[in-house]
Write a structure and sequence with these properties.
cell membrane; 296 residues; two-stranded antiparallel ribbon; mainly alpha; 74% helix
């Protein structure tokens, strides 16, 4: 029984990390129709900015409120990079899909190279708060606190996003833009501000994933964002493009499947099963779990 509890909670911790990456991807694609392959760069920037701030920023540190300050600095860095990317590189290319893909892929590769040039290619130990190195007993299972932190953070982000989309003016614009961007534009609403806003939200969520992912893995490396981005895209497709709730459902399914199969099967088999799940969803329900069928 304790093994099932442990696998479930650690799988949910992994699911939470995937959701933080996928939530921004889902919003950006749903509203702006942009496949942002540079999203992993925002994660890497958030992780390295948090790592740097914990050792150099006054008031920041690896423990207590100091780590909150460091993580906040990392999230802010992710937001600034995301907004800059949208304004300078993406905005001129909204009507050119292939150019978007080429630019964001190139930016992703350049970002990894830049991080390697500044901090080297080897993983660096992440400044984790002491309590995240410990475990909590849950029904006899000793669950790492880092995974529990991710679960709580993802739940708060999901609740915050849903509240923002439901109860704020810009949230209404974003929801309407996901449904029918042409109609929103015809009503005289400047959706370009909403585009920048969803990039900022996506950058914040990705940077938070970078900061908390550093705690989860215990290290930070230039290629970390790229590997997590793959699973982020899988989650977005399974959940349904543009659906934050669908991404949450899909993240839970992917994280639990990966964790259980890797434990009871052979190492790496969980990744194969995740890809198989993606294939099944694309064949049986191409619009995803919570996506809507496209109409002519």
């Amino acid at each position: 029984m304790s093994t099932i509890v442990l696998l479930t909670l650690t799988g949910l911790g992994l699911s939470a990390l995937y959701f933080l990456v996928a939530s921004g991807l889902s919003l950006v694609f749903g509203l702006a129709d942009v496949l942002n392959f540079a999203h992993g760069l925002f994660l890497g920037v958030g992780a390295y900015a948090t790592w740097w701030a914990a050792g150099n920023l006054p008031g920041a540190g690896p423990d207590g409120f100091g780590f909150v300050v460091a993580a906040g600095f990392g999230v802010l860095a992710g937001v600034l990079v995301a907004v800059l990317v949208e304004l300078v590189l993406i905005r001129p290319l909204y009507s050119r899909t292939i150019a978007q893909v080429l630019v964001t892929v190139g930016l992703s590769l350049a970002g990894v190279a830049l991080l390697q040039a500044v901090w080297g290619a080897d993983p660096r130990p992440f400044p984790r708060p002491e309590w995240t190195r410990q475990v909590t007993s849950v029904f006899g299972a000793k669950v790492p606190n880092a995974g529990l932190l991710l679960i709580v953070a993802a739940a708060l982000v999901l609740a915050g996003l849903l509240a923002f989309l439901r109860f704020t003016r810009y949230g209404l614009v974003i929801r309407a833009g996901v449904e029918n961007r042409e109609m929103v534009t015809a009503l005289g609403i400047d959706v370009r501000k909403a585009f920048t806003l969803v990039f900022a939200i996506g950058g914040a969520a990705a940077a938070l994933a970078g900061a908390l992912g550093g705690i989860y893995f215990g290290s930070v490396s230039p290629g970390q964002g790229g590997s997590l981005l793959i699973f982020g895209f899988i989650v977005v497709v399974i959940g349904g493009m543009g659906s934050v709730v669908g991404s949450a459902y899909a993240a839970v399914a992917v994280g639990l499947l990966q964790q259980f199969v890797n434990y009871y099967g052979t190492s790496g088999l969980g990744d194969v099963c995740v890809v198989a799940l993606l294939a099944v969803v694309l064949l049986l329900r191409p619009q995803g779990i919570a996506g809507k069928v496209a109409t002519a």
